[in-house]
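Please decode residue identities from the backbone states below.
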């Protein structure tokens, strides 16, 4: 069973993120808003990016999980809220 802990932080863009976003846009062909999201994720040292937009799979700086591609029946995807706004997802036959 796969398990991930998701955390949401607010990180204001700065020149370092803008420069990284420009490089990500040029290398991976992302649009500016997408490249800013990817650069912010990289700057935050994430190992995975959860989205419904497969364009982020082009970025090799983190793993991308596209939610629409999760093939699970009822009860196979469970979410629990942890302290500090963190969300934990479990995917598998006994996720509940």
């Amino acid at each position: 069973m796969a398990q991930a802990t998701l955390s949401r932080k607010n990180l204001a863009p700065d020149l370092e993120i803008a420069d990284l976003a420009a490089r990500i846009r040029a290398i991976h062909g992302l649009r500016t808003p997408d490249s800013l999201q990817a650069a912010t994720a990289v700057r935050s040292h994430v190992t995975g990016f959860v989205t419904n937009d497969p364009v982020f799979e082009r970025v090799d700086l983190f793993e991308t999980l596209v939610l629409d591609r999760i093939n699970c029946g009822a009860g196979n995807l469970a979410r629990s809220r942890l302290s500090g706004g963190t969300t934990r997802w479990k995917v598998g036959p006994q996720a509940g």
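Observation: The chain has two helices and five strands.
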